[in-house]
Design brief:
single chain; 385 residues; alpha/beta; 2 domains; two-stranded parallel sheet
Length: 385
């Protein structure tokens, strides 16, 4: 058995990717896990207690895994052979029991039987899979190295709609979004977001997320362009203010002082407006520095909206840049069959048209099963209070 032309849905959480997977999984030409494929990445985890941690992996990581750890594409293929199904009922069974430790032996037997069914009963040769795993926004290049013939569906939702949906899921007390398996982390004590009363980080962990949690880098960069408040910059600004005051006092002592000041400092007549502006800049720098340090003391440094905006921005930044990099290496003809960008709002507005175009891109039949599922308008991954 060999996997060919796998389909990877690349999308930020809460962007409609579960719905897209639900419809595509109705195709008899695609095998699906009917759940997220975190099982692929277990060997890359720093802590197995967090099975969905969003480590970012690129071409360099792939090459290191091959040279240092003996990684081969066949490892991922073997896991897909065990964990993908071509029937919704079997997929749902695996989805329900996959995280239940008490039935782990039974679940492993179920997966072994699934692989045996493919090999011995169906005599399956080459086949295709569809995968939707949100942290894959940070692993596009790695996946393309494992499966060079992969096709990518890049689903993007409007910022407002996606961020609002993320916020509702963060605030949800429902079991689907409780993320209780992350309660062991030390950093939970530092989570104190305006609009969120929980104590765990939910959904993806973009690169730099811990720095964002501690020092307010993301919100500061949006508000002032400063990013991390640099103490050296603050010190330099304070010194500049002191020098401006000194020159201003010198000017007042010698009359207008224009010629001597211009010779000594290049400033000419010291402008009180410049001094006022510099003093205000120092005050703002101090305020940002205090805000950063307050985060360590449990003082609120972010709103939940800022957290979700950070996740949305980073997910789409990494996805778009990685997909563009992959496409740039291809011929025009190959590029047209490599990446399809899908607008969530357009997909929902005209589902039949959108999925007909998706199937055309993937060289799939727009099957009766898919059309029937679209007509049912299934609700997936809904937020419950």
């Amino acid at each position: 058995m060999k996997i060919v032309k796998p389909v990877f849905i690349i999308a930020c959480p809460r962007s409609g990717s579960s719905y897209l997977l639900k419809i595509l999984s109705e195709s008899k030409e695609l095998w699906s896990s009917y759940r997220e494929s975190h099982y692929l990445w277990e060997s890359f985890l720093e802590d197995p207690r967090d099975p969905i941690f969003s480590m970012a992996l690129d071409v360099g990581d792939y090459e290191a895994a091959v040279s240092d750890n003996g990684f081969t594409p066949e490892i991922f293929e073997a896991l897909y052979h065990l964990n993908t199904f071509n029937h919704a009922l079997l997929g749902q069974i695996s989805r329900v029991v996959s995280f239940r430790e008490k039935v782990k032996p039974l679940f492993n037997w179920f997966l072994d039987l699934n692989k045996l069914w493919k090999e011995e009963i169906l005599n399956l040769g080459d086949y295709r899979i569809v995968d939707k795993t949100p942290p894959n926004v940070f692993r596009v290049e790695f996946l393309d190295k494992v499966f060079p013939d992969a096709q990518f569906l890049y689903l993007k939702r409007s910022p407002e709609g996606n961020v609002n949906s993320l916020m509702k899921a963060w605030q949800s007390k429902g079991k689907l979004f409780d993320f209780k398996f992350r309660e062991f982390y030390e950093y939970n004590s530092r989570i104190n977001f305006e609009g969120y009363d929980g104590k765990v980080w939910k959904f993806i962990n973009p690169p730099g997320w811990e720095r964002f949690l501690d020092d307010g880098a993301y919100s500061n960069s949006k508000e002032s362009g400063l990013g991390r408040t640099d103490s050296r910059l603050l010190s330099l600004s304070e010194r500049s203010v002191a020098e401006l005051r000194e020159h201003q006092e010198s000017s007042s002592n010698v009359g207008d002082g224009a010629y001597s000041n211009s010779k000594e400092s290049g400033l000419g007549r010291t402008d009180s407006r410049l001094l006022s502006l510099s003093e205000r800049s120092v005050a703002e720098l101090r305020e940002h520095q205090e805000s950063s340090s307050n985060a360590e003391d449990g003082v609120i440094s972010h709103s939940l909206r800022e957290v979700c905006e950070f996740q949305y921005d980073m997910a789409n930044k990494y996805a778009s840049e990685s997909l563009a990099k992959i496409s740039s290496r291809l011929s025009e003809a190959a590029r047209s069959k490599k990446v399809l960008e899908i607008n969530y709002e357009d997909m929902i507005e005209d589902k039949a048209k959108s999925f007909a175009e998706i199937c055309d891109f993937l060289d799939l039949d727009f099957s009766i099963g898919m059309q029937s599922m679209i007509a049912k308008d299934p609700k997936v991954s809904q937020v419950k209070d």
